[in-house]
Structures are given as structure tokens and as C-alpha cells.
What we know:
27% helix, Nuclear Transport Factor 2, Chain: A, globular, two-stranded antiparallel ribbon
Amino acid sequence: MTDRIFSQDDANLNQSALPTARARLYSDLNPLFEPNPNTGDLYLLKDAAAVKQSVKNIVMCNMYDRPFNPNFKSDIRALLFENVTAFTIARAKEYIKNAITNNEPRVTVTNVIIDTSVMHTLNITVSITINSTNERATVVVNTERLR
């Protein structure tokens, strides 16, 4: 009985020239929807910028902002109307970490800092590590109570 070889690459499995992994590229639309004056196309956010925008969107999302998915939230704006205590800040940090961990598998949250020095304002700084590239990034979100 003869050995069957279906392709040239099957015969050389130990010396394969095939790529085993490729760099992951992420892209997303710019939320400002500004067209490129040269091409007329929308600007794209790529790689780390796309992931950072996604994290920012998750932090800003409230309960019931996403139809049929009420668990997609960080619910930070609801905390703007509460008294700022150590418990409130700890709860906000927990909300943010859980929301990003549950909804953004491309990153790992390393730190969340919430500054409450200005009244009725939460200045949130989220430090993340992008899993595919081990790149560290910081996302800054400012929320303010309007009434």
C-alpha cells in the first residue's frame, strides 16, 4: 500500500512555511463620523484606538441603553446622583471592572481610578492591557451631572 499525499504541504508538516499566527487588527468607526476630505470615506480607528473606544463606550453605557441586553452596562451615570462616599467609589470601580470584563474580551483591566474632586463629576481613568499585543493603554472618561 502506498502513502497518499494530498498536497505538497501535507508531506512537509515538520517544516511548514505556512503562517501559524497572524497579527490581529481591530478597526472601528470614528464616533464623530467625520469624513476624510481626500476620499470622502469615514475615518477608521485601528488597533489600540479601536479597543480604547470600545472600552469608553462600555463605561458610558447605562442599563437599557442596548435593546434586549440589559446586562450590557456599567451604570456610572446613575451614581452621579448619589452622595460620594468611599462605598460609592468602590461600587463604581466594581461596576466598571465587571462591565469591561464581561463585554470586552480583548482587554484586561489593570486599574480603575475615580477622581471626585469636582462636584457632581466623575473623572474615570481606566488602565487596560490589550491581550493580543500586551500593549498598555489608558482610557479617560469624564461624566458630569447636568441637573
